[in-house]
Structure prediction request, 310 residues.
Amino acid sequence: MVTGTRRAGSGATLKLNILTHRTFLSLFLVLFSGGGCSAAVGAAHPEMLVSTEWLANHLNDPKVVILQVGQDRRDYEREHIPGARFLSSEDFTTGHQGLMVELPAVEKLKQTFEELGVSDDTQVVIYTTEWYPAAGRAFFTLDYLGHASTALLDGSLAKWKAESRPLTGEIPRPARGSLTPRVNESARALLADAKAGTEAGAHVILMDSRPLKRYTAGHLAGADHIFWEETVQNPNKPVFLPSPELRKLFESRGVAPGHKVITYCEIGLQASHMYFVARYLGYDAAMFDGSFYQWKDVEHLPATKGSSPR
Prediction:
């Protein structure tokens, strides 16, 4: 159980360190990269999203590690961004205690990312050729590990290819990295946190990230709804909406600033994307790893039907 005391103690110190690092990195990108992401202007953490131009200018930077997330390695072997390493979904998710998708043990995650060359001082850039929330799940995992310098590629591989940028089938052989986990437990919401969020007057805001038809069929009591696809211009070419539009979207659905946000979906993928968006905008966010599957199918807890939160 994640308690308020733990979040207010060492977790708060860790969060301060991460935010300080992110602030420095943000300034670095703005001042020195010359290829920042226009959608990120006005975001609380613009360094969490990089443009295809920025990445093209940093393909040979030894401190930048590009990760292609997916299930089918054959797609990666056929073509990928030069220098990108393949991160299999199976290597950073697991299933246990009746759940289908959940965080593996910290040591397993450390091994996975170190084998891909990720170190404490590495800037990681993530993209996917598959369902875009998979990229958000990888971001969430590194954020949970306390690795601050992680970003998504705006538009993912679809935008990169549309701009006729280089692709290769050459497989890199990176040196092993050295990653020090600084686990941020406040990034992961557990069942007890979700239950507390359903109570009337709760200070946290639950955010259902699923399609509207799934929300109306049954959702956690009090949960607001933002389908993850509403945050990008096109789910097949996932360029993020400008941050002012994202803020308006959040506030129009009752997700007001100053509250803790707990995202959830079916099994923790769409919710990981919305965790990213909430963090990007500056919200204090967590992702309910068990999500609705644990709530309804494992624990058999009641759900609210209809288009209203309660």
Remarks:
- Residues 91 and 112 are 6 Å apart (CA to CA).
- The chain has two domains: 4-162, 185-298.
- Confidence is low (pLDDT under 50) at residues 1-35.
- The first strand starts at residue 49 and ends at 50.
